[in-house]
Amino acid sequence: MGAGIIEIVEVGPRDGLQNEDMLVATDQKVELIGRLVASGLTRIEAVSFVHPRLVPQMADAEAVMAALPDADGVSYIGLALNERGVQRALDAGVDEVNFVVVATDTFSMRNQGCTTAESMEVWERLTFRGYGEGARFTVTVGAAFGCPFEGEVPVDRVVEIATRVAAAGAAEITLADTIGVASPGDVTRRFGAVRDAVGPTPLRCHFHNTRNTGLANAYAATMAGVRSFDASIGGLGGCPFAPDATGNIPTEDLAYMLQRMGRAAELSLAALIRTAQWLETSIGKRLPGMLMRAGPFPAVAERA
Ligand code: ZN
After folding, report:
1. Which one in 11, 144, 165, 189 has a CA-CA gap of 20 to 30 Å to 180?
2. If you ran DSSP here, which 8-state letter would residue 3 be given?
3. How far is the CA of 205 from the centre of ligand 1 (A)?
4. Distance separating alpha carbons of residues 255 and 270, to the nearest angstrom
5. 280 CA from centroid of ligand 1 (Å)
6. pTM of the prediction?
7. Rounded CA gap, 69 and 145, in Å?
8. How far is Cα 177 from Cα 141, in angstroms, rounded to an integer?
9. 231-256 exposure pattern, b = at least 16 Cβ within 10 A, e = fewer
10. Residues whose beta carbons lie less than 5 angstroms from ion ligand 1
11. Catalytic positions, please?
12. Chain centroid offset of residue 9 CA
């Protein structure tokens, strides 16, 4: 990636589908991921390795991984909440393990059955003993902008977690607005404070558009120097704590904004739009993305 170019990490197959009610067939997931790769996306969070009773949408994680095309320069990410999930991810051959540490104890207990500190201890145990060499190990700090149970999350708390997971070898740290409450000011403040604390560790952002602040937050993150952005195709997904809310920021809407800023990686907006439209038809549900309705501008540039 060139200087100033921003990478989009596609999380629709994982975060998007995980927060949709319907169960999508394995071959449909594999087709979706293939289409995303064909659109130029090079990092894809494909699955999560969580207990199938808790997240039935991800029960076929191993089967999805086994069926994915080996694409040059494409990195498949598996999400894990605990040691067992990490082992499953490695066994399934992921390129990256994205380990989740939730910023508040109440949410952490509900999400992964342990406190924030216990979760960080698992992370340290795994990384300090050189576990899973060959795969890239990253950390997502969940509820980094607000918690559905505890409310406001102090910036110091997020900094403390980021500092500790960075010291234990996180290759990248994502601050996730899991419930979609962030505003641009929070983004500037939190990423600034974490950047000061973790030095050269790459940072990534994860915004849900639950309250329609997603793209504004993304813009603030570009100004804060973040170079990796999570997004989901068509804005697929939802928020478990706001039943009627939309999902992550839409990949193609974000790609459009970044292209117009001269900051996007090589992506075909036309292909992303086609993929979003295909997905809408195949799951039989209207998706919230807007570029897929309005089309790119100037239109002629993307007629391929
Ligand atoms: Zn999310």
Report:
1. 165
2. T
3. 10
4. 11
5. 20
6. 0.96
7. 35
8. 9
9. bbbbbbbbbebeeebbbbbbbbbbbb
10. 15
11. 239
12. 6
- Token pair listed for 18: 């995980």
- The identity of residue 235, as a single letter, is G
What is the C-alpha separation between 186 and 228, in angstroms, rounded? 18
Q: Tell me how far the alpha carbon of residue 132 lies from the centroid of ligand 1, in angstroms.
A: 25
C-alpha 65/C-alpha 102 separation (Å) is 25
The pLDDT tens digits for 160-202 are 999 999 999 999 999 999 999 999 999 999 999 999 999 999 9
Is residue 303 predicted with pLDDT exceeding 80?
Answer: no
Euclidean distance between CA atoms 65 and 206, whole angstroms? 23
108-153 tens-digit pLDDT? 999 999 999 999 999 999 987 777 778 999 999 999 999 999 999 9
Could you tell me the distance, in angstroms and rounded to a whole number, from the CA of residue 274 to the centre of ligand 1? 23
Q: How far apart are the CA of 5 and the centre of ligand 1, in A?
A: 23
